Amino acid sequence: MSGAEPTITVPTWLTDTVTATHGEAGRQWLAALPAKAAAHLAAWDLTLERVLDPGGSLSLIAYVHRDDLSPAVLKTGLLTPETAHEHAALTHWAGRGAVLLLAADPAEGALLLERLHGEIPLRSLAESKAMLEATSLLHRLWVELPGEHPFPALAQRVSATAARLAEHGGHPVATEAQALVTEALDTARALAESADETFLLHGDFHHGNVLAADRAPWLAIDPRPAAGERAYDLARLALDRADTLVGSPGVPAALRRRLHQLSEALDVDRDRLRGWTLFRAVDLALRSLTADRREDAELYLELADSL
Q1: Which candidate in 204, 222, 233, 283 is catalytic?
Q2: What's the rounded mean pLDDT across residues 1-16?
Q3: What pTM was computed for the model?
Q4: CATH class of domain segment(s) 12-115
């Protein structure tokens, strides 16, 4: 990289979300973030084009180009139990169905990625078309796990949600939905114990995490990988465009139709999909409370109640 030292400004959205969800540790990470990103620009001989704003909720996203002028993306993220193995999942997929990993410094949460068309997410398509593209892509992502893999089991994700409940269970929204939350956690524990298949899962697969690309129509980004059954991944997709679902006439019937269509399309047991969808709706609600987004929490709890 040549020229003056780049100016890196952390987007307000990233500052707000990291501070809300990670407190003092998040503030310390944010304070060091510009220097950390600049260090990787220098180490990987990158030239900064611009920082995306708003960008990610847990990562600084920068458009860069390499010394051969090829475009790329520098992602500098906050390491959490869910994000720590993103590089390992991308390495295993090797560009099949997902963004290609060009370089990584896992200990620092820094990834150099293939440049996709960030302005064209799968969400830009009509829902029916987007669901078709999404299910086709999931077929490619669900692969056998590598030997000696680092990916957490789904039971660990359930335990993390239980811990989130312990932290925010006193919130009026969580208190009002206590019976529903308890049912979701009990259901998820039983599902995690009884699963008879194990694949590499994306972990956060929805229309916003799929972007248009040059070497394929669509590629997945931002995995929070886990090892487990396919219904867990599909459940997050089933909850996509939650505002549209809640705004439709007859919410329970609309959600049942979506579950039926997705389970048929990907040959996933419908009852297990329903159970994981219940859990993931409650999990998303608790995450929303963590980030002080009460309306989103109420939205996901309404979907959970419809199940």
Answers
A1: 204
A2: 81
A3: 0.94
A4: alpha beta
